[in-house]
Amino acid sequence: MFGATSTTEEVLAGIDLKGKRVLVTGVSAGLGVETARALVSHGADVVGTARDLAKAERATAELRASAWESGGSLDLVEVDLASLASVRKGADEIVAAGQPFDVIIANAGVMACPFGKTADGFETQFGTNHLGHFVLVNRIAGLLKPGGRLVNLSSAGHRFANVDLGDPNFDHTPYEEFVAYGRSKTANALFAVEFDRRHRARGIRATAVHPGGIQTELGRHMTEAALEGLLRSVNEQNAAIGAPPMVWKSIPQGAATSLWAAIVAPADEIGGQFCEDCHVAEISDRPGLSGGVQPYAIDGENAKALWAKSEEMVGERF
Prior knowledge:
Elements: H1 8-11, E1 21-25, H2 30-41, E2 45-50, H3 53-59, H4 61-66, E3 73-78, H5 84-97, E4 101-106, H6 124-140, E5 144-153, H7 177-199, E6 205-210, H8 224-240, H9 251-254, H10 256-264, H11 267-270, E7 274-276, E8 279-280, H12 300-314
Parallel strand pairs: 1-2, 1-4, 2-3, 4-5, 5-6, 6-7
Antiparallel strand pairs: 7-8
Helix pairs in contact: 5-6, 6-7, 7-12
């Protein structure tokens, strides 16, 4: 029924989410705000997290003011995924509230930023995109209801690189922005694979999604020339294998796959899988960003190894 051009409203058409509770990370801009808006407009109670609470309040002011019309709600919690102290504080606040969730959508992230370290000394993209979510989700996992779901936002960018568990912080490897991004997005996919394996006995399923190419604040570290260069490179690779050129999605189209996987798709269909354009992606080791999921991003043994390394890095076992 749905595909690359489907929007959030098309995916949720006719669905009443009253009584459903959903946690969405990164509700201060772009996909996070649209995901929260769509859920609340269909009656869901959403808890949104953001690093900059004031920015999130401004971005969602209209949404929160109109939530009564649908019977939904949006509450905000401060969580800076680049600081495990902030992640743990936010998780403790959420757990203390004691209200269960039907869905967690791990949406927040950074992309192609200059080399840097999080507050805990992790490479910025791996630390923020993966390890921050790893700790947050695992600390609140007990609140997920049986039959609940975890949706991790990965990316076709996972195709840039597999995880490097021997050098996750680029201590010995020359830093490249998109290699680091690729590692973090592969980690998002693998986290879903292992979380799904560990929780499916409770009826909880996890999946990873590629939202598509969308022009949001995610690309704020890229110059216009760098963005044009990336698009040109992607389209050259696509042309070489007979794939169509990349087409930008709107924000409502970009958030559609998250909501399809979270609410609409059969749980057994998406559990432990990688989704794109509102369907489960095919396994493909073709070069470029032409679609499909690289085998290493859904490999069960790779996922177990990443989980163990992640526990070691954050000093916590789940």
